[in-house]
Amino acid sequence: MEGVLQGISIRLWTLAPVPRWQTKCLRTIEPICPYQEGIISAMVLFLDFDGVLHPKGAGHTHFTRLPILEALLRETDLTNVQLVVSSTWRQAYSLTRLRAFFAPDIAERIIGTTASLSDYRSEHERGEEIEAWLSKNGNPAWVALDDDLEGFSPRMRAKLVLVDGAVGLQAEDAMRLRALMAWN
Fold it and tell me: Who has the most CB within 10 Å: 108, 151, 157, 175?
């Protein structure tokens, strides 16, 4: 499969013909499957903004790396990926306003935000917020795109694509994200 990310032509190879998240409920004995019940229909991507969709720090234009993510999410086998905003931007903007930063076809796939918790059990705050969202929403298959390793406990880091916050999302990060989604 070929794609173009930020003007760079790349060839993306899918290692698994069917991502595991597409058949997860077929392999379980749970009486209610959130995927089949329409609660969550696909893989969930928890998305940070600062340091991911644009470089972190003053003087940077916002959302300069968003075209890379949107191009990836438009690939045929990733059109069912849903997004949850885990960025601190969720504390300053409504869900409607957060969606407005994205192209309409991607904005409609943003299904919510993580909550800010009143009490954290550890220093891994982002991870705890994601775990709370997952628990409340049927524990769907998930991955996270973030620039803060310390926000995630060691056991959650296998589902994290870590981005260099000084530069933001790059084509190489998008390829790692694609590969991780194929194996979850």
Answer: 151
